[in-house]
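subagent[fold] <- orchestrator: predict structure for attached chain, return tokens only, no commentary.
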Amino acid sequence: MIPGFRWTAVKLGIFTIVTLIVTSWLAAIIGNFQFFASPYTITAQFEDATGLLQGDVVKAAGVTIGRVEEISVDEGMALVELSIDEGTELPAGVGAEVRFRNLIGQRMISLVEDPESSVSGLLQDGDLIPLERTEPAFDLSILFNGLRPLIRSTSSEDINIVTKEVLAALKGREDVTASLFTNLADISDTLASKDQELDVLLEGVTAVTSNLSSRDAQLRASLEDMGSFLTDLSASREDLRGALVNLDVSARKLGQIVRDNDELIEAEIDDLAILLDAINDRRDDLRKIVKRLPTFLEAVQRTTNYGEWGNQHLINVCRDDSGTCGTRYVP
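subagent[fold] -> orchestrator:
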């Protein structure tokens, strides 16, 4: 009996030891515990660390690299100590953001590299991520407080009706709904990858709105003038309608005239082409005539400045009846 009992005790002990080892191994994997590693600590300064708890994960590029070690308050700011796994190299210009880890409200810290940062090197043990490189988590209470007036103004019966209609519309369309959420996830990923472009766009929109705000009086005057113009236009709609009718009639008559005189118009166009060709051939002579035209017009103006009488100053004019023209007169 004693040898058999001892063998059973040995087997039970071996089973217990193996079970403890496997359980510890699973706990280390699930909890991301590193028993033989030497992590280093960095501190991040946040304006608000609401919802962040000790032990929450720290991620970079979606990979868990550490945990929240301690949370304290210093001069109204939240100081969060982060324990980073050994061997993890982080740029010195990295930023920290508090984000939602899941739908039940758990938070996590995401370390994000800023490509425009001028800080070089790597983070070392004891380094600080300053406030200007951190972002607090979005506070859902602000959103809920903003929705409170809408919720108060809506009765429970109306909400139930809307809920029933939505459920009836989605019933039997699980594939479509799943595809919709998949597309929304793709859109979110695309927008997240276009973060810099969106920042530039928002800065441009801000500049435009600021410019429009500074020109409020001018915009108001322009809108008032536009309103007056539209009012006058509305008052003259009968005249406009008549003008459009007359324009249509004129266009039809003009078209009929063109159709009736098609051959004559073509002949005139041909003659015009011949005339233009002739002008082009004599363009040098025409250029000379145009160049001398101002002098000729000045002479004509001096001659006709007395109205219907012509005034022309003639020098040495004679009638050669006696054959004396060209002979100098000597008194």
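orchestrator: received. Logging for downstream: The longest helix spans residues 2-31. The chain has a mean pLDDT of 79.
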